[in-house]
Amino acid sequence: MDRYIVIGNPVEHSLSPDIHRAFAEQTREDLEYATLFAPQDAFASKIAGFFDAGGRGANVTVPFKSEAHSWVDAHDVSAATTGAVNTIAREGDLSMGYNTDGPGLIADLDALGIDVAGSRLLMLGAGGAARGVLGPLLAAGVADLVVANRTVARAETLVAALEGGAVKACGLEAVTGPFDVIINGTSAGLSGEAALIAPAVAQGAICYDLLYARDGATPFCEWARSAGATRVVDGLGMLVEQAAAAFAIWRGVTPDARTVLAALRGHT
Fold first, then answer.
1. Residues 6+ apart with CB under 8 A from 1
2. How far apart are CA 182 and CA 121, in angstroms?
3. Does the bond joining 10 to the residue before it have cis omega, within 30 degrees of 0?
4. pLDDT digit string (tens) for 110-137?
5. pLDDT, tens only, 35-60
6. Angle at CA 138, nearest 5°, toward 237 and 204?
7. What is d(CA 137, CA 120) in angstroms, rounded to the nearest whole number?
8. Does the bond joining 17 to the residue before it have cis omega, within 30 degrees of 0?
9. H/E run at residue 51
10. Where are the chain's structural domains?
11. Model confidence at 23: pLDDT above 90
12. Pairing relationship of beta strands 94-98 and 87-91 according to DSSP bridges
């Protein structure tokens, strides 16, 4: 039986196994999918061991998406341009790196009726999660993009690699509104820290957290609601949509993402 994993740190909380098992049942594909924890300094040895033992594919989550980009043998266009890999497939003797985060986010935004064309958008964070989605957001027509990060130099490096649109970088303390859309691309919410910017910045904005919770109540989402955001969405829909894209890469069949999302939300 073909084996797949999601590798990360932390990873025990991941819903990816539930999602891919649901996809497998839906499409009648025979596979196993599990989590793999990697210490901060052991991504390369852990992922190599998995593939050496016959693994067929892997999803990569925080904090290893940039390191995965360096580890794979080759990249598709999305991974090459973003510098981050969230999906790895073994193709012959090669490990191929993909990034399905951007398409997953755009698919979820479309399903939610959120149109980013012409918008002023704030991205919080400049790590692998942000790298994977900024290009597709610009391609979707974002008019003005601000990337805010604790380390300004990291945000500036990311912005310098982007093409299209009016893009600038700043520190979190320097963020001023208004914005139409705010996306949290940091992992701060994993430890409960959500107040990354002044509450006034979120007033009247659509706030989207790339992190997720079954009930939609991530720390960032709760903070955004209290700050007066007009609409607040967590990243579960994106998780399912990017997983569907990864599943299609591995198995050659595209599952119905929205049906699985509804089941995870408890709406079926």
1. 30, 31, 32
2. 6
3. yes
4. 999 999 999 999 999 998 888 889 999 9
5. 999 999 999 999 999 999 999 999 99
6. 65
7. 11
8. no
9. helix 43-52
10. 2-99+239-265, 102-234
11. yes
12. antiparallel
| Domain 102-234 fold | Rossmann fold (3.40.50)
Residue of 11, 26, 1, 41 whose CA lies nearest to 247: 26
- Three-state SS for 182? strand
CATH number of 2-99+239-265: 3.40.50.10860
Q: Rounded to 5 degrees, what are φ and ψ at 162?
A: -90, 150
Check: CB of residue 234 under 8 Å from CB of residue 206: no
| H or E, element range at 146 | strand 144-149
Residue 247: is it exposed, middle or buried by C-beta count within 10 angstroms (0-12/13-18/19+)?
buried
Question: In CATH terms, are 2-99+239-265 and 102-234 the same topology?
Answer: yes
Q: 38 is written with which tokens? A: 């990697």
**What pLDDT, in 10s, does the model give residues 166-224?**
899 999 999 998 999 999 998 765 555 567 899 999 999 999 999 998 888 899 999 99
Q: Which residue has the higher pLDDT, 163 or 240?
A: 240
**What is the per-residue pLDDT across 246-256, written as a single tens digit (0 to 9) for each?**
999 999 999 99
- As annotated, the active-site residues are 65
Return the CA Rg of the chain: 18
pTM above 0.90, yes or no: yes
Contact assessment for residue 155 and residue 148, using Cβ atoms and an 8 Å cutoff: yes
